[in-house]
Amino acid sequence: MSFGYGLSTINLNNMIKVDEKGFYGKFGGAYIPEMLYPNVEELRENYEAIMATQEFQDEFRGLLKDYVGRPTPLYFASRLSEKYGAKIYLKREDLCHTGAHKVNNTIGQIILAKKLGKKRIIAETGAGQHGVATATVCALMGMECTVYMGEIDIARQHPNVERMKILGAEVVPATSGSKTLKDATNEAMRAWINNPVDTHYIIGSVVGPHPYPEMVARFQSVISEEIKWQLKEKEGRDNPDIVIACVGGGSNAAGAFYHYYNTLEVRLVAAEAGGLGINSGKTAATTAKGSPGILHGSKTILMQTEDGQVVEPHSISAGLDYPGIGPVHAHLFDVGRGEFVAVEDKDAMAAGVELSKLEGIIPAIESAHALYALNMIEYQKDDVIVVNLSGRGDKDLETYIKWGKY
Ligand SMILES: *Cc1c(COP(=O)(O)O)cnc(C)c1O
Fold first, then answer.
1. Are 242 and 386 in contact (CB under 8 A)?
2. Atom 2 of ligand 1 has which residue's CA nearest to it?
3. Strands 27-28 and 23-24: what pairing?
4. How far is CA 214 from CA 32, 112, 202, 335, 371, in A?
5. For this structure, is 390 an active site residue?
6. Nearest CA to ligand 1 atom 5
7. Concatenated DSSP letters of 250-294
């Protein structure tokens, strides 16, 4: 076994490995206001050394095992496999505590925050999933937790707001601008600038200024680390032919791809949200519709107007409703290492219902995008395909009911 989760940078292709300044090829870096520089710099200088200590690894691994419930199963989906004519395995991140992969990252970051001597956690959230994962680990560690959320999102995502409150977090409405995620991010940044010494800011995906994208990817890399030995047990080889994951910011995909970046014979398929269609004006298909620019502190690909205004994204799944992708995915796209597909709302819903009926698993609508990609890519009969099932569908019940076609 390797020494620890996400520490195997030595094995990574230089093309994919992040450089000193946080760039994956042309994308990444840290484009931040000067006032934020000391906070980000403190993290950058310390995260690798802290993550490499045995003490950190013991605590991280211990909590992933006993609190999150890892390793999550790699489940051979026989009825789904029969239907598609391939050997399809589902990586069951839906069985993580709190119902999705996001907690892998928040556990890692809160241990790191504690080691850095922080007393207080702030986060921003759109749909509330990252807010809930953050509030959860703050309760676990007895840390003060403030979650910034757009006023409109607070109204739209009522159950998650109440979850955060039950867990002891304070939810602060962002009332400026469009009153959604972007404004919540601005408020959280402002709060961090004002409390640099005692506060850590937990970002929920592989986005934001360096070192966040790489740090979050390493925490999530436990997903592909497990896939490797689980597949070895089941198939006698640790490399599948194809790994498929959905991409909002891209953290579950980065985790599922991480230990395969350098294994060029493993195809990496990223499913973005096509919304109502990539040319409908209501989409979140970033690589199809986007161009290079700066979003949330890093250079990446985002959907923007000609004069650089961020275009409001649309997806039926809250977790994919984001106008950009993390810089590592922009790079995978740029160098042709990843295959990107855009899955429309209606097709994702159909794939979610299909999995429910074939396997008795109601997936998160985000994860259903990855499932539908099976219909959009080419593969050989009996190829081994791993689909990362990033979350469960309990949170999406209302959307399934409104959709109605089941
Ligand atoms: C948040 C979320 C996503 C999207 O986030 P990534 O950072 O792209 O992984 C995907 N699936 C589920 C279930 C989520 O909660």
1. yes
2. 319
3. antiparallel
4. 17, 14, 13, 18, 26
5. yes
6. 248
7. SHHHHHHHGGGTT-TTSEEEEEEEEET-TTSS--B-HHHH-EEEE
Q: Is 124 a catalytic residue?
A: yes
Amino acid identity, residue 254? A
pLDDT value, residue 163: 97
- Which residue in the block uniquely carries the two structure tokens 């995909």? 253
Mutate to test the pocket of ligand 1, among 223, 390, 394 (most ligand atoms within 8 A of CB): 390
Least confident of 13-17, 121-125, 210-214: 13-17
Quick one: average pLDDT of 288-314? 95
214 is a catalytic site residue: no
Q: 222-237: per-residue pLDDT in tens?
A: 999 999 999 999 999 9
CA–CA gap between residue 91 and residue 226 (Å, rounded): 9
Q: Which residue from 95, 219, 366, 395 has its CB within 8 A of the most atoms of ligand 1, so it is best to mutate?
A: 366
DSSP-derived 3-state class of residue 73: coil
Regarding pTM above 0.90, the answer is yes
**Residues with Cβ within 8 Å of residue 192, at least 6 apart in sequence:** 36, 39, 122, 199, 201
Nearest to 221 by CA among 253, 245, 262: 253
The answer to whether the beta carbons of residues 316 and 365 sit under 8 Å apart is: yes
Q: Tens of pLDDT along 28-69?
A: 999 999 999 999 999 999 999 999 999 999 999 999 999 999
- Taking the C-alpha atoms of residue 267 and residue 217, their distance in angstroms, rounded to an integer, is 18
Which is catalytic among the residues 87, 91, 102, 118? Answer: 102
Per annotation, catalytic residue among 93, 114, 390, 395: 390
